[in-house]
Write a structure and sequence with these properties.
CATH class of the largest domain: Alpha Beta
Structural class: alpha+beta
Number of helices: 11
Number of domains: 2
Radius of gyration: 20 Å
Strand content: 15-25%
Shape: globular
CATH architecture of the largest domain: 2-Layer Sandwich
Distance between the termini: 4 Å
Number of strands: 12
CATH topology of the largest domain: Ribosomal Protein S5, domain 2
């Protein structure tokens, strides 16, 4: 028997960073994101050999353990160990024997929510196998708690919910980890035009998002006015983006992206650098009307909006300075699990 799952990666279109505590706890956060045709995959094969085998295919890492109730964290595949430990602790209360294989369509630190999406996919596979009593909100919240509480990994709240629900969503974040996911019914022609005019560009660099996020959190804790005001503007950007997409005012998308990018850079140190600024300038000079870094910043993917037929000029200009343009489509489904006998 094989238990499989896949969960989509996401692109944050507006509001990124306002989902991070303590800002979201104090002021409330808002994000607009959309899932892409890029995925995190998990396959569980139950065994009876009293072994736990973890095979992270894309990373080239493989580990084997004796079946125990709690795996020890040692810096190697701790994310996967944390999921297993929580499943055993909360639901099963006895060791399991299986082989788990994982793969992600984007590299770690690329800004598309890879880590949280992988957690969601693995948790979904366990839920499919063990018939865990988890609805969509339950699963996303559990994935969040495994990362942020059990493993003490810095980050926001949007990724787990985007991966679980899928589609284009306006998400609201409040204290006590309260999250409201509002699916947006955007006309197909507007969504198709958004995808056609958008260029997703991988800079060829990755970053450790936790350092940037911790800096952002400290700015809020220390009541640094410039940083907090920038986060307020970022939250406003999510509302502007929602209105533009629902009304089909796509000519405003680039301007809204650029508006958010200028404020995002004020939220914390190391969100941008000379390399990223050169990429941004190159895209705008070639015809993009605005853009942003995906995720916390510092590297990874960047998104540019290119109106009219400018996307091809922008792609050509970006490919000349290295990196890679990634083709994708927006998708409307989230976590998907199934069993093959």
């Amino acid at each position: 028997m094989l238990i499989r799952s896949k969960a989509p990666l996401r692109i944050g279109l507006a509001g990124g960073g306002s989902d991070v505590s303590p800002y979201s706890d104090i002021y409330g956060g808002a994000i607009l994101n959309a899932t892409l045709s890029m995925y995190a995959y998990a396959t569980i094969e139950p065994t009876n050999n009293n072994k736990i085998i973890i095979n992270a295919i894309d990373k080239g890492e493989r580990m084997e353990f004796n079946s125990v109730e709690q795996l020890v964290f040692d810096g190697k595949l701790d994310l996967i160990k944390g999921i297993y430990n929580r499943v055993i602790k909360d639901f099963i209360h006895k060791p399991l024997s299986f082989e788990l294989s994982t793969y992600v369509d984007a590299p770690p630190g690329s800004g598309l929510g890879t880590s949280s999406t992988l957690v969601t996919a693995i948790l979904g596979a366990f839920s499919e196998w063990l018939k865990l009593p988890l609805g969509e909100y339950d699963l996303a919240n559990l994935a969040y708690n495994i990362e942020r509480v059990d493993l003490n990994m810095a980050g926001g709240k949007q990724d787990q919910y985007a991966a679980t629900f899928g589609g284009v969503n306006f998400m609201e974040f409040y204290k006590d980890n309260k999250v409201i996911v509002n699916p947006l019914r955007i006309k197909d022609k507007f969504l198709n035009e958004l995808a056609y005019n958008s260029v997703l560009y991988y800079t060829g660099t990755s970053r450790l998002s936790s350092q940037i996020i911790k800096s952002q959190q400290q700015n809020v804790e220390q009541n640094k006015i410039e940083s907090i005001e920038a986060m307020h503007k970022i939250k406003d950007q999510a509302i502007l983006m929602k209105e533009a997409l629902l009304k089909g005012e796509l000519d405003k998308i680039g301007e809204i992206l650029n508006y958010g990018w200028q404020y995002k850079k004020q939220m914390a140190n190391n969100i941008t650098n000379k390399f990223i600024e050169n990429i941004y300038k190159t895209a705008l000079n070639a015809g993009a009307s605005g853009g942003k870094i995906s995720g916390a910043g510092g590297g990874g993917f960047m998104l540019f909006y290119c109106p009219l037929n400018n996307r091809y000029k922008v792609i050509e200009a970006l490919e000349k300075i290295g990196g890679q343009v990634k083709r994708y489509e927006f998708i409307n489904h989230g976590l998907n699990t199934w069993t093959i006998d």
